[in-house]
Amino acid sequence: MIMSVKNDAAPRPVTVLGLGEMGSAIAVVLLAAGHPTTVWNRTPEKAEALVADGARRAATVRDAISASETVLVNVKSAAAVDAILGEAKDVLAGRAVVNLTDGTSAEARETARFVAEAGARYLHGQIMTIVPGLGHPDSVVFFGGEESVYDRHRPLLDLLGGKGTLVAADPGAPVLYGMAVHGTMWGILNGFLHAAALLKDEGVELKRFLDHAGPSLSALTAFLPSIADEVDRSQHAAQYGALRHHLPSIEDLLRESRARGVADHLPAHTLALVTEAVADGHADDGYSRLIDGFRTR
Question: Per the database record, which ranges form the 6-phosphogluconate dehydrogenase NADP-binding domain (predicted)?
Fold first, then answer.
């Protein structure tokens, strides 16, 4: 079920290009809010349910873009975005293109340049939820682009998530924000699943573990602001919890994993990062020093 943020935006024509899982959900949200919505997809059959709900199906990309001042794009790749917009470059002028497609920051900036050359305005958006969360008051969408474009279309964009925000004028910034959230998420999830493998090998019920360890795990996120501050200031010296004190615990985790036949690549990678930092003379620095190990230049 897709929720909808309460929004008093005056109905305005909107076009949605791409009717995959997320693109179709975006169109549903717009229709529910009363916006005349034109949809297009390379496979026309994907528009049938939306047409039944009141959407207008465009036969071509040019027709779809010509129908609205505001064009939302959500397709499978940045290359697909460029190909689709390239088919209708001559009708882009004067419109606002909101690209909600995944890709890299460089690809977002390249699409922004193409759109600008065509005489249109551009915003890049990174939706930080799966389909059921689209339109929820607590759902986050990061946007990047001109503030004036964002402000003009904000009532419409807020329909996608109540926590939408313009993070920078750079259209590549929301992509990096999204990747940073996902990278943190995968690190936490992978770390927990590695821990779960150890606990299950011992026959420990995970719910029981969380009941006991919940406060310790919750406290971990409280360290992120201080780590961020140390990285921003490039000052990593630590009064407590220096890297040299992490080494024995990491080595214990590695040996325990190997003894139980649990994959050891996560603790092994952590040990390599800490060992390298200590060898480089940073034994008394805090964990934030390990950012150096993730830089390749």
Answer: 14-163
**Residue 77 near residue 52 (C-beta atoms within 8 A):** no
| Domain 14-169, CATH class in plain words | alpha beta
Residues of the chain with CATH 1.10.1040.10: 205-294
| CATH superfamily of domain region 205-294 | N-(1-d-carboxylethyl)-l-norvaline Dehydrogenase; domain 2 (1.10.1040.10)
CB atoms within 10 A of CB 192: 13
Rounded Cα distance, 17 and 27, in Å:
9
Q: Which amino acid is it at 224?
A: L
Helices 173-201/243-260 angle, 10° precision: 50
Q: What is the pTM of this model?
A: 0.90
Which amino acid is present at 261?
G
151, burial (CB in 10 Å: exposed 0-12, middle 13-18, buried 19+) = exposed
Residue 23: count of CB within 10 angstroms of its CB: 24
**pLDDT tops 80 at residue 95:** yes
pLDDT tens by residue, 196-226: 999 999 999 999 999 999 999 998 888 899 9
Q: Can you read off the two tokens belonging to residue 174?
A: 């929301």
